[in-house]
Every structure is written in structure tokens, then in C-alpha cells.
Amino acid sequence: MRDVAVVGFAQTPCVRETDGTTNGVEMLVPIFHEVLGGLGLTKSDIGFWCSGSSDYLAGRAFSFVSAVDAIGAFPPIMESHVEMDAAWALYEAWVKLQCGEVDTALVYGFGKSSAGQLRRVMAMQLDPYVVTPLWPDSLGLAGIQARMGIEDGLWSERAMAEVAARSRAAAMSNPLAQLSGPVSPEDLLDEPYVADPLRRHDCAPITDGASTVVLAAGDRARELCERPAWITGFEHRVDSPSFGTRDLTASPSAVAAGKAAGADGVEVAELHAPFTHQELLLSQALGLGDITVNPSGGVLAGNPMFTAGLSRIGEAARRVHDGTASKVLGHATSGPLLQQNLVCVMEGRD
Amino acid sequence: MRPAAVVGTGQTHHAAKRLDVSMAGLCREAIDRAMADAGVDWPDIDAVVLGKAPDLFEGVMMPELFLADALGAVGKPLLRVHTAGSVGGTTANVAASLVQAGVHKRVLAVAFEKQSESNAMWALSVPTPFTMPVHAGAGGYFAPHVRSYIRRAGAPEHVGAMVAAKDRRNGARNPYAHLKQPDITVESVRASQMLWDPIRYDETCPSSDGACAIVISAEPTSSRAAWIHATALRTEPTTFAGRDQVNPRAGQDAARALWKQAGITDPLSEVDATEIYVPFSWFEPMWLENLGFTEIGQGWKLTEAGETEIGGRLPVNPSGGVLSSNPIGASGLLRFAEAAMQVMGTAGDHQVDGARRALGHAYGGGSQFFAMWVVGSEKPA
């Protein structure tokens, strides 16, 4: 395999609502400027572009088409798009670099959850013949998963509140976070339920945001970045969508992706866990033990849909870039209740 | 790059409404045929790539998630591609790259559209800021480009009708085609209703339910394989001052890169069969020029001379093309799969004799997303 590394990362602030149009592509121009400028590159230096977004989030068909305008893609570019979190666009770009056709790739994702009613929009992801017509609420579904874990003794409401408190505290060092601050688990446990056993702090906030990551291969990566975050494992898997046949307290796809990507021995992990109990579930599935999880605050501090997973990889890579860690893990999830999981393991080399 | 080949293809019987199957059943119909054609079983498949045009066409957000079981993807990597109308072609290229990169040995690519589940016209008519609404459908958007082409090239009016008659006659030879019109004539096409001047009803693609699947492998699984000689993707913005929508630069750039990678210097003499994305008849001569098969302004002459018929110098759409079946998300992959069938010699009644190298082509959006490949019966050198 070719040596490929994350060499650049930029993201917008995570906010409850931007002023931009419904698909939110306006958020892209400043971060393209930031990430390319930081690397001393222009758009013509990029060999391959790939993005992740969702038409349903924007409430319109072909919502990604306007993003091509944000790039200013003339002369034409080599480009593709996944209707998934942009972490999977990063995977597609990594494959393209492995083909040897190009040496650089820019990946971006964007989502404006404020354009619609997110809980209702997410019900459109379910089986359209037998489940969606019941309009299950996404918080309600997560509540079922959390309840099953509590009853199986896998986690508790207190452990969940501790995850939330730790996220908010960690996010105090993240100027782009939507939610941050010192809170005590005791205070959080006094809050009312929104979907028993989930309280407001157990659920990621509704967020508008975008992010971008630049990949480069071999010597090009070394030229662009003092300490590239070399990708040593990049894997993703999907589980059945059927809630009735799936053990909701386990995540076989996360276990398999973590094992295949070589998650053993990572020092820092950024997990894409939109609910507190899912962070506990994923830490277990990935065998993370006592390492630092979500030093950025994770998605409980800001959850820009369709790019939150890409941001996790960018945040993890940043710990390699700044020399605070030498082996890190970025994780992304997609689909209801952790149906699909992706793991990207990166290492710094001195 | 590691060599990769299409080792099996499958498609559904396309129809306006496939009320006999769900989305899962539709996909599975194509997948089962592709797997049988390739002679492989589920344990032989390492990853699945699903392509589909906008989710609003069926009213399901990211349908690959609920389809994971039907696609045989559970426990495996599953990627979902969406690049507007070019998506089927991009899906094939992404699946190919997974094998060419050495990441997987064998990948299943699937693309579908079940337009009857929803209302495509509604899905394309959501009012959006700063974007001209296309309430007249795709034909209304593309008609001015066609008119502009006719004016620039000085093409006689009957050329579009010739394309439509040819593609529908070809479609009659294809057991899977939605429209089969063996008796259609240039005169009958010209007598059909004008929809978006100069595009007539019979020069317009149907709206179909359908799916297509292919198996791409690093090693052949039988004595026949369609080796992938080149792939290309190019994108440009929808609108900006000076953009040439009749002959988009992204299409020209993609074709140039494609021919170079395939080692082709004279496409017209070196390519034996083509499956070109022609949803409205006039796009045949337009794309012949954009792809570099002819000089600018000369594409219609190749069509008028009958050279794009099966048996002509450059058969275009022997399967009947998009004019005979248009399950939008699958239409690009159908072009790529039909090109593979031609070089594998499995195209049946619409086989081009001795086809050894074939082009698959797809475009999407406002003629701004392009995906292409060249496949051949010989392993690339």
C-alpha cells in the first residue's frame, strides 16, 4: 500500500443555526481558504475532490451540486460525492490515492440540520415500507438502545451523565464547540428526561457546520506537513438495519472495523457518538480501555451532520500534527443506532 | 494500478412501474443475475458500492442503509455514491478503484431507481435560493442547449429523429429494455408531439423502474472478462459566464484523460462499440463531438450517414440506451455494463460483431458531471 497521510484540517464553528441557505454550502468557502492557505496550496494543486452530504437534510435534490460552485471548479476537477458522512468520502479519496493516479485529495462535508426538523428527517432513513410510516423519533430509538444497555448492566444513567460532563469540560479548550463548560454529573442527573432514559445532555445538539481534510501521499505529504498523520488502518462495515434481529447493545460493525484497522494501542480516540451511551458502547467495541476519548468534546459538544465523522478524523489527526500523540483513532458512524461504522487509525513518525 | 475486470453483469426488466417488487427486490433481481453471470457467491464479495440519483426520487434518506441486508452488505464495507445523473458511471468507477487500489479482490456495484415509489418531477421542483427552478423537467432545461447545437452545427432537423428511431429499434433487440418499438420510423418520430421545442415526445427518454449490477474482480472468474482499460471523472459548476453547455469542458477533459489512459489515439477507429448517455436524441451528435469521436460540428454527419447503427463504423447504444430505458440512478451503470457485455460477447441480439473495445459514458446535473470508462476483451498491457 502507498503511504497516505492527513496533512490538513479545517472546520467551521459548530452553531445551532447559520444564516446561510438551506444546504449550507456557504460554510465551505472560508474553510477551503483556511485549509488550502495553511498548506500553501491552491485548488489547482488538488488531484481529487470528494464530499459527503445529504439531500434530505437540505430538503432538496442534488444539494451537493451547489458545493461545486463553492470550489470554483473551473477548469474542471476530478470529483465524486457520497451520500454519507464525509468520513466515507475520505475513504473514497484514500482509495483513489492508493490507485496512484493522484497525490493529493481534498475532502469536505457539510450539513445544515437547522433547515428542517432533524428528528423527523432521520425517520426517513428507516425501512420505508414497514418502519418509516410509524415515524419513530430518532431520540426515542436511541432511548430504546440506552434502556436496553442499562437493563443489561452495560452502563448506567450516572455513567452516561459522566460522559456528558467530560465532553462539556473537554470542549472548553475547543473554541469551535457549540456546548462547553463545567457541569457536574449530579446536576445533569437532576434534569428531566427527553426520551427516557435520555436527558438533553445525553443527546448531541442540533448543529450547522462543515469541515474539510486534505490527504497527501508519500513525499508530497512530507513536503506539506511537518508531522503528517499517516493512515495505517482505514476500515468500515455495516450491520443489518433490522432492529428486531440486531443486538442493539452491541456493534459488530464497529468491532470488525476496529480490529481490521488496528485500533490496538491508540493513545487518543475521537468517537462519533451522538448519544452518551453510544460513546460507552463504542469504547467497549473498539477496546479502547482508559485512553483519552474525545479531547475535542466530541459530537456531544457539536454535531454537524454528514461531516461530524470527518471532523473526528481531523481532530484525531491534529493530535499527531501537534506532536501530542503518536497513534490516534478517528471514528465515524452512520445510520440509525450505530448501523454503520468507520475507523481510521493514524500514526506520526519521528 | 492493479488490473481489474468486469466478470459479471445483471439488470432488471425495466418498466414504468415495477409494482411486483420492493426496492430491495428490484436490486436483488439485478444482483442475482450479475452474481450468476460471474459465477460467484456472497463469500466471494468483499465490498458493495451502491449508486442512486437523489434520495427524493423514492422518498428514502440514504436507502443503502435499509437495503443493507438485500445488498448482501451486512458485515462488509458499503459505500453509497451520488453524483446526479452520472451516478451509475461513477459507481462503476469507484468500485473499480477499490479493486485497482488493491484494497479488495472482488466488489459488487449496484445502481437503481424506482421512480414509481415517488414523484420525480416534484423531487426536482423544490424551490431553492439562487437556483433557477426547473419546473419544466429535464427536457425544458436541455432544449435550449439542443437548439444551440443545431444552430451552431448547421445540423438538419431530422438527425434527432434518426437517433430516436435507431435507439428504439435497438431497444427492441434487448430483452430488458423498457420501450421496444421495432417498427418506429424517422417519420413517426417526427410526427410525435413537440414537448420542448425542438425535442419531441419520441425523442425523450422514458421514466423507468430498474436496477443494474456488476461484479468487478482482480482475476477473471470464467473464460470471459471485460478488462477496465481506463476510467475518468470530471466535474464543473452548473452555471457561470462563458460556460459552454453544448460542449462542456468537463466532458472534453474527461474524454481526453480517458483516451490517453486507454492508449487510444484515434477513438473513431479504435473503439468498436459505445454506450453513451443520450436521454434526449440530440445528445448523440453532441456527445460524439464532446468525446472527440468527430471534429466540432461534425457529429451529426456520422449519425446521418447511419454509422452509429449496429453494423456501422461506430455503433452507439446497441442496447437501446437511455432512450429505451431510464431508471435514472441505474442508467449510467447500464451504459457501463452494456459496454462490458459487448466486449465479453454476451450482448445477445444487440451484440456488435467482434467488439473488442467499448466505451461506457454517463453525464449528470446540468451537463456538468461526467463519468466514463473503456473496457476491452484483452487484459491491458
TrEMBL record, chain A:
InterPro entries: Thiolase (IPR002155), Thiolase-like (IPR016039). Signal peptide: none annotated. It comes from the Bacteria. GO terms for molecular function: acyltransferase activity, transferring groups other than amino-acyl groups. This is Lipid-transfer protein.
UniProtKB/TrEMBL annotation, chain B:
InterPro entries: Thiolase, Thiolase-like, Thiolase_C_2. SUPFAM superfamilies: Thiolase-like. Residues 245-368 form the Thiolase C-terminal domain. CDD domains: SCP-x_thiolase. Keywords: Transferase. The keyword Transferase applies. PANTHER family: ACETYL-COA C-ACETYLTRANSFERASE, NON-SPECIFIC LIPID-TRANSFER PROTEIN-LIKE 2. This is Acetyl-CoA acetyltransferase. It comes from Lentzea guizhouensis.
